[in-house]
């Protein structure tokens, strides 16, 4: 004999498995959230650049890593669905190229140019997520 709480749990799990039928709402929320994460990535990269220019390469590199993990990673899936090549380019530019330049102690002007290029790609990502 199945008890009432067990039946309620089974019913709830069944509803969750079926979804709410609101895929477009979920996609809209995801896109809006991803656009906010793009904006947060921009802010974090600008802060990292300022830290780099002040001479603290290690802290700047940590800020870039944090920007990637805390913000850009949340953009990856929605952006992949819209423009996979752009997602790959930004991912590589932040996680590999920018961090490598900072670790190597490249001139601030070179790091700034990299950040500027990433910002242009983030603008494209934001537009793609509309």
Could you provide a short overview of the structure?
The chain is mainly alpha-helical.
Helices and strands, with pairings:
Elements: H1 4-18, H2 23-53, H3 57-104, H4 108-128
Helix pairs in contact: 2-3, 2-4, 3-4
Descriptive notes:
The chain has four helices and no strands. The protein is elongated and about 35 Å long. Helix 3 crosses helix 4. The protein has helices at 4-18, 23-53, 57-104, 108-128.
Key traits:
mainly alpha; Four Helix Bundle (Hemerythrin (Met), subunit A); single chain; 4 helices; 130 residues
Query: How can the largest sheet be summarized?
Result: none
Helix content: over 70%
CATH architect. name: Up-down Bundle
Look up the CATH topology. Answer: Four Helix Bundle (Hemerythrin (Met), subunit A)
> How many distinct domains?
1
Low-confidence stretches: 4-29
* Radius of gyration (Å): 20 Å
Dominant shape: elongated
Provide a count of the helices.
4
DSSP strand count: 0
The CATH top-level class label: Mainly Alpha
